[in-house]
Amino acid sequence: MNKSFTYTFKGDSHADTSAEYFASLNMNTEQIESVLQQKEFEEEQVVRAERKWRNTELARADTELNKIQDGAAGNPVDWAEYRNKLRDLPSHIDFPADTARPASPT
User: What angle do CA 41, 45, 50 make, to 5 degrees?
Assistant: First the structure.
């Protein structure tokens, strides 16, 4: 899901968004603002997508816990721990990288 931000300038692909690099490309203020706005937009999209996944998984964990309470097979401790990890996910150092996702109980 996660990829590095890249932009095209004068036909070449770039990833560096430092002021020094922009200066070395002779980018004007409007061009720099455009690149930075696009980077921010793409980062927000990644966060939204990861929060959507998390919310779906929280609902699934709740459903599984309810099934177990109603007599279905399963380990409630595993599902409760998973749900807690999902709740803590936004504070994980690697969030919103999908590599920060906790493993789902089986």
Answer: 150
